[in-house]
Amino acid sequence: MSLASQVSAVVRMNVKSIGQRFWPSLSTVVAVMLVVLVLLSFLAMANGFQQTIRGAGRDDVAIVLRAGATTELNSGLSRDQVRLLGEGPGVAHDANGDALLSPELFVIADGKKKATGLKANLPLRGIGAAGAGLRDNLKIAEGRMFASGSNELVVGRGVQREFENFDLGSKVTLGKSQWVVVGIFETGGSVFESELWADLPVVQSLFNRTAAVQTVRAKLDGPDGLQKFKDYATNDPRLKLDVLSETQYFSDQASQTSGLIQYLGWPLAIAMAFGALAGALNTMYSAVLSRTREIATLRAIGYGGFPAFVGTLVESLVLAAVGGCIGALAAWIFFDGLSATTLGASFTQVVFKFEMSPKLVEQGLVLGMAIGLIGGLLPAFRAARVPIIAGLAER
Amino acid sequence: MSDTLIRLAHVEKSFVKGKEKISIFEHLDMTIPRGDFVAIMGPSGSGKTTLLNMLGGIDTPTAGEISFDGQRIDQYNERQLSKWRSDHVGFIFQFYNLMPMLNAAQNVELPLLLKPLSASQRKQNVAAALEVVSLADRAKHYPREMSGGQQQRVAIARAIVSDPQLLLCDEPTGDLDRTVADEILAMLQLLNKELGKTIVMVTHDPAAARYAKRTLHLDKGKFVEREELAA
Ligand SMILES: Nc1ncnc2c1ncn2[C@@H]1O[C@H](COP(=O)(O)OP(=O)(O)OP(=O)(O)O)[C@@H](O)[C@H]1O
Ligand SMILES: [Mg+2]
Which of A84, A202, A208, B107 has the least C-beta neighbours within 10 A? Predict the structure, then answer.
């Protein structure tokens, strides 16, 4: 009990003295803040990207790719294979008995970004009649769906927001062909909002890809639908195709890019953390030095070294916590919901939002507190070992 | 209880500096009776502070015995010395050594935090100690808001708050002007007379030494003991 009151008295004293060394203390706070801010900006970017891509996927939709293909772009299926897939087990059917299956073709078109005025890749997806129904939360926000057989486009909300001339009614040239925007669709912020959709046969013919299909999306008829469909599509000698749930496919795609963002962010933040650590050490050593006589006086009165140790450590942790919290708060204010585009795995622009989460903030604070802990530890040992006689002689 | 509070016998103290051995005391004997008020004078470097530090258990002799109330404190380890200091010794320094972040009452409370006392008991003792040094009305003031004399009175309150028998003062008036110094010295004298504190005070100032019951002159590690006559 008396140790606790000694420690709390010294801690109170040290924390109050932070204001006395205002500038060095502030520099530590700012350094920790910047580290946390930078780390969180990268983590929020990676997280937002991953959420966007992963959010597009459904568990009850299978995506079929050529064996060994890792993305839609390097996949390709024949017309016969598409037909055979429609006859497979595990696939759901509509009221008319037609398989809920969407063969899709994915071509790269050009768009001009509003922000930079530069050209960027835009994915144009030709979808089958069942295609729209396979997307979650699909909403035609403006206008209507394209009519089959016509050169009409529906445009994802993200594309309309980030690219020039994709508003309702706009006439657009893609490749060598003319299109009309008849609708704007939303899918709850998922990756599809970065796409243009049109009728598959029209895309095939206007882009001279007659009968070519890259992927097939199929609605599954139950929890074991995926396994049945997969067994069929991988084992049938005429197929030998890869089947994944759409969720799995997207999360594979997202993890590469978001991993890359994280692998940039962490080393940068850690390099900065070393700089902040040097600053924190310096601040705390000078704090201990300036308190030498006070510490020695307490020791003469009968205090042990432990209160001085804890007091110094807590002071350092307080500085780090203040910096970390400001950094996290600033990151949340500036970065959460910030819209960005980046190259997705298919070399097209993906529109996504930075997304903060308590878990990321926790990681940022852990890094910040680690700076405070390590930066306080060595000076705290020094404080605990202030020699009484020499310390009292200090002026 | 014997009349002797502190006894030094054959005390030797030396420092090793590089290859050199600096000897400060080769053979020091000294007896301080309970209730004494001793002034220690001597030229700079004669070992006054070193002696005071040994009496207060923050320095230990290289050889020889120091006993306090019959207990061999020279044989205590650091932990025991810490505890012993908090029970028996109050320190008063030339530059007061108050904690700038704490107000007068909080400074005075510091030694009490080492004791198993309740917050209200501590508050009572702090108030009583501040009363003794006539600073009850300054309890909430911070050191920077007080004069040197007031700060030294806070330091005295801190030294006596846990009721130690021994007060050790190293140049307690070295930083104060005459009038204020006299105030402080009168206060120490009062603590000696009324509360029976045993006081050892190092000073350069013969006028200060006159407040003590006797003065010891230290020179080259040896005492020249004599009754100090009123000049
Ligand atoms: N840690 C140490 N290492 C080496 N020498 C020391 C140490 N502490 C004190 N000394 C020496 O011991 C001698 C006595 O020092 P001390 O501080 O006791 O003198 P003093 O009488 O208090 O002097 P002053 O009047 O200047 O305060 C001095 O020569 C000093 O240099
Ligand atoms: Mg001295």
Answer: A208
